[in-house]
Specification:
The protein has helices at about 5-15, 25-30, 35-50, 75-80, 95-100; strands spanning about 20-25, 60. The protein is built from five helices and two strands. A two-stranded parallel ribbon has the order 1-2. The protein has one domain: Orthogonal Bundle (Arc Repressor Mutant, subunit A), CATH 1.10.10. The N and C termini lie far apart (about 35 Å).
């Protein structure tokens, strides 16, 4: 059984548009649990394929990809770059440009 938090998170992740990113914490907050970032990580790990989620658009609060090099990092970066997202110093994403702001 999928929790109401998970259902809301899945719907919110699906809304992250092409060329934008969201953070794990941002998804958690919009889903009703501001402390649920790790739940979002687990949800992405378990449901991205089944729910056809744009998992690669979700990054950490520092604007970096959380996956390790050689363990999905390169794929996520490539998918984001294909959407026009540019990486700055230390492979950081500029939130002023690319952060999804659904409420404003």
């Amino acid at each position: 059984m999928v929790s109401s938090f998970s259902k809301r998170a899945i719907e919110i992740i699906k809304r992250v548009p092409f060329g934008k990113v969201a953070t794990y914490g941002q998804i958690a907050t919009y889903s009703g649990n501001s402390r649920g970032a790790r739940q979002v990580v687990r949800l992405l790990n378990s449901s991205s394929e089944k729910e056809d989620l744009p998992w690669f658009r979700i990054v950490n609060s520092k604007g970096n990809i959380s996956l390790k090099h050689g363990n999905g990092y390169e794929l996520q970066k490539s998918l984001l770059e294909k959407e026009g997202i540019e990486f700055g110093k230390n492979d950081k994403i500029d939130f002023d440009i690319y952060l999804w702001k659904p409420l404003g």
